[in-house]
Design brief:
The chain is an alpha+beta fold. The protein has helices at 3-18, 22-25, 55-73, and strands at 28-32, 35-39. Strand 1 (28-32) and strand 2 form a beta hairpin.
């Protein structure tokens, strides 16, 4: 991996972590070539009334990971999500 790309990945990581919304989730992120791994510690306030994690948490993490994985490969242009479909098979409760 070139120094230029390492700096690109680090810049993306800093950008992600500096987003005001992430003060709510307190995520961790690791970006490499074509890959972004995001983790958060689940808290009770991320759950809906039925006791499972709210779908907005799933979607945010999946959308963020997809965006930063693509952005790791494209250093010049800003990407946007045009369409995103998720299929939830079973809920996460812990």
């Amino acid at each position: 991996m070139t120094t230029h790309m390492t700096q690109h990945y680090q810049s993306l990581q800093r950008m992600y972590l500096s987003a005001p919304i992430n003060q709510l989730y307190l995520p961790e992120i690791v970006i490499t070539e074509g890959e972004a791994r995001i983790g958060i510690e689940l808290r009770e306030d991320f759950h809906h009334a039925a006791g499972a994690v709210h779908g907005s948490v799933y979607f945010k993490m999946l959308d963020d990971a997809a965006y930063f994985a693509v952005s790791s490969l494209e250093p010049e242009f800003f990407m946007l999500t045009a369409s995103f479909t998720t299929y939830l098979i079973r809920p996460v409760s812990s």
